[in-house]
Amino acid sequence: MSSRNALVRRTSGSRGNGETITSPPSGHEPGWWPLSPERSRTLLLVAARPTISALTVTVLIVLAVMLTAGTALTSAPGAVAATWLAAHQIPLTVGGTTLGLLPLVPTALLVWFAARECARAVPEHPTPVELTWLTGAVLAGPLLMTAVCLAVTGDAAGVTALEPPGVFSAFSWVFILYLGAAAGGICSRAWSALCALVPVRIPEWAVLGARAARRTVLRLLGCAALAATVSFFVHLSRVGDTYRQAHDVIDVLGMTLLSLLYLPNVVIAAAGLLSGAPVQFGAGSIGLFGVSAGEVPAVPALIPVPMGPAAAWWPVLLLVPLAVGVLGGIELGRTSDDRPGAPWATLTCAGLSTLTFLSLAILGSGQLGAGGWTGIDLPVLVVLLVTWLGFGGFVGMVFARRFLARTAPAEEYDDYDYDDYDEDDFFDDHDHDHDDHDDHDDAVDEDEDDYYDDDPDHHDHSGDADHDYHDPAVELDAELVEDLDDDVEVSIAAPGSTAAPAEDIVDVEVVEPDLPEGDRGTGR
């Protein structure tokens, strides 16, 4: 029987029954210059939705407060503008008194909402142009609303005691906050793409140090929240004196709500105290090594603040940041493959953690009216945190290398929102294609077994190590089927052929020339 060379080309875009498999997109998407209608709509939502939502909530809160207090609604525009500015940590001056220590809960919610909207709009394969457009959209809405609020406060200054804040200060705070929101949203979805845009290679110890810094900050904040809660219950007897200034239920609810909004400020101050840095209240200060006289505002949020002389056991609390640093060093020592770079990862963790707490301390500090500046002593905070976290991290790293077994580093994946990108169809088709291939192989193996069962002269050489037996190989998924011997004829139905069955079927006909004519087997 004459031999035949079969040239078979099977691609992921075609099947034997004529169906087409869609491949996932590859490469970068088209740039956003010029903007398409769909991209323009996405950017408009990113710019408008957080701003409009925040403004709506602000208006409702201001109207509810004014109607409850019986205040005339003529001052509502100025109150809405002042509330918007205060929510973005912009200091306000009312009647000659400056209020710079503002609650962090509204600020955190606004930044989180903007970062969430930004993360949803990040494309799968972003380019620098796309990221620039997206960052500009995140900044555009809040900056525009801030300009409107500054104009409103300027107009209301003639009828109210509210003084308009500085323009540079107002725009600087809004720009910094929403730039951080844009960075957080983009990094949560396109961290790999951002690393690819960096012209230099980021070392592994820097990435490990950054991940450890995030865990270190969360642990120290958790310890500070626990310490503040314990102190609150210890000083629970002050609750009555704190609410004594309230005249009715409305005042009690207002003081309680205000204290809840200031809870992040209290936790940050507690973290500073645990590190050893004193917290200043105007002329006075409170620290682990001493308490100086000062006036503390009588609000429920400050009930956990310790009063009186410092106890002898307070310095023991310095073990908390030291233990947090040791735990971070142990994790780095157990997961780092780069032994020379592990100390640098420890220093990176300590440095980034300190920088994060410094930013939080700046946000949680400010001028508190006639009471003066209130907040953590920033220079002392930086020195002590670098010391405790750096030294503790190095000790933990050495301990892990000497006494603990190494573990594989845990992969940290970002939370993606896959609502806009679905690959189920592609992978279902791909799996179906593999199932067809497996069924075909089973059919060929079964036919070959039937042939060998009918052949009385066939001997099984599978147990003979000295005998080399090679089956005629037929490559099904390769680009080219090699030349076959005259004894084997392969007939493959062309993909998409209407003459072929619904599934890919390979007809294999094996003929042994030395067999009798009646014993010739055909496997299909």
UniProtKB/TrEMBL annotation:
Coiled-coil annotated residue ranges, if any: none
Transmembrane segments: 43-70, 90-113, 133-153, 173-197, 217-237, 249-274, 286-305, 311-332, 344-366, 378-400
Keywords of this entry: Membrane, Transmembrane, Transmembrane helix
Species the sequence originates in: Nocardia halotolerans
InterPro entries registered for this protein in UniProt: DUF6350 (IPR045931)
Organism ancestry: Bacteria, Bacillati, Actinomycetota, Actinomycetes, Mycobacteriales
Skewed-composition ranges (Basic and acidic residues): 456-470
Region annotated Disordered, chain positions: 1-33, 427-470, 494-524
Protein origin, superkingdom: Bacteria
Cross-referenced Pfam families: DUF6350
Annotated protein name in UniProt: DUF6350 family protein
Bias (Acidic residues): 438-455, 504-516
Ranges of compositional bias, category Polar residues: 1-25
